[in-house]
Amino acid sequence: MSGEPAAGSDRSTGPRDTRRFAWLLDPKLVTTAVASLVVIVVAGLVQVSFGAYTMSIGQAWAAVFDPDVILNRRAWNAFLLGGEMPEMGRESLIVWNIRLPRVFVGAIVGMNLAVSGAIFQAITRNELASPFILGVSSGAGLMILLVLVVFGGLAVFLPLIAALGGAAAFLIVYAIAWKNGTSPVRLVLAGVIVGSVFNSVQTALFFFADDIGIVQSAIAWTTGSLTGTDWEQVRMALPWSFVAILLSIAGARQCNVMLLGEQTAKSLGMSIERVRFALSGVAVLAAAASIAVAGIVGFVGLIVPHMVRNTVGSDYRKVIVGCLFVGPALMVGADVGARLALNPVQIPVGIVTGLVGGPYFLYLMRRKRNMGEI
Question: For a surface tag, which of 196, 206, 346, 369 has the fewest beta carbons within 10 Å of its beta carbon?
Fold first, then answer.
């Protein structure tokens, strides 16, 4: 007799556990994920097919799926841990050691910026919020430039330093916007002000750089570029990105509650300010991990959350997961455009995202009847 309730309990918890994750099988979310993966694969294949060493798409495809690399433990140890690179064929060496890391970095950057923008839009209840608009990108970029120009020995800590810079910028924005609470308009205006000041300081730092190579590197940071990225950037961003993404998924429920309004959230027992700052920390960490390896890439955090919400709805569990796919698709696709638009000259990917994001930003503003609705 004692065993029967336990068996019944197992049967009752099984369906509940299944229903808990049923939203992952939402047709719109699945379609979004599959379509994004197709874009990533196609854009990535195009990316690895072009370069100084010419190879056909078939050769590039064969190199990407070379079993001597994919199934080689030493190769993955070299890629992810910085070990000694094993011997491999010429095409495989070029694709895996030079071209494919750029695709991986682009995917990581797009993923982080999209998730960061989605969280900022939830905690501020502001459709125009993003790491770029709220000054977080400028704060993180300023700290990175300080390291590159003045404190070169701290380069190994770039993601952490970028996170501190982004957090400081966001705190300043909050302090400026605070007046018995914050409003969407004040947050956006404060973000524009802080971003402008930090961008001016970044420009001033160029005059303190003696090495032209440092100046060129600094310019690449401020415009956002994936040129020259390799497995070192993957290793630098991956751990921080993993933590930020896990925390963002865990915080999706809190984002849903905050979208109901402060009064409703408080009535449900939520500590608004505590949750807001905790989620802000997650968003800053995600943005900083991207800025540390690719520089300041604008508008990805603004565009992608809107695209995902328009497709899968406003449930932030779906929005966060959707951003994990659409963000990389946009970033990898934009990088292909940046690389091939003026071939053989490669333009920074931040210019391409800016050309796409600027008009989209204006569209969002014009869609509102007045600034008070922003």
Answer: 369
Length in residues, the chain: 374
Report the interhelical angle of 231-250 vs 100-124 (nearest 10°).
Answer: 30
CB 350 within 8 A of CB 223: yes
In 3D space, the residue among 105, 119, 104 whose CA is nearest the CA of residue 320 turns out to be 119
> Domain spanning 100-367: which superfamily?
ABC transporter involved in vitamin B12 uptake, BtuC (1.10.3470.10)
User: Measuring CA to CA, which residue among 187, 166, 163 is closest to residue 176?
Assistant: 187
Strands (E), the chain: none
Residues pairing with 342 in the sheet: 345
Residues 201, 203, 208, 212, CA torsion sign: positive
**Residue-range domain boundaries for the chain:** 100-367
| Chunked mean pLDDT (size 10), the chain, 374 residues | 49 59 86 96 90 82 90 90 85 91 95 95 84 85 82 72 85 84 75 90 77 71 84 90 94 89 81 84 88 86 92 93 96 91 82 86 68 46
Say if CB 335 and CB 39 are below 8 A apart: no
In angstroms, rounded to a whole number, what is the distance separating the alpha carbons of residues 245 and 67? 30
| Cα-trace Rg, the chain | 22
**Helix, strand, coil tally for the chain in percent (to 5):** 80, 0, 20
Token pair in block for residue 321: 């997961």
Q: Is 14 exposed, middle or buried (0-12, 13-18, 19+ CB in 10 A)?
A: exposed
Cα–Cα distances in angstroms (integers) from residue 241 to residues 22, 162, 247, in the given order? 26, 13, 10
User: Which two three-digit tokens encode residue 372?
Assistant: 């008070």
CA–CA distance, 329 with 304 (Å, rounded to integer)? 10
C-alpha–C-alpha distance, residues 198 and 221, integer Å: 14
3-state secondary structure of 232: helix
Q: Is the pTM of this model over 0.90?
A: no
**How far is the C-alpha of 334 from the C-alpha of 192, rounded, in Å?**
25
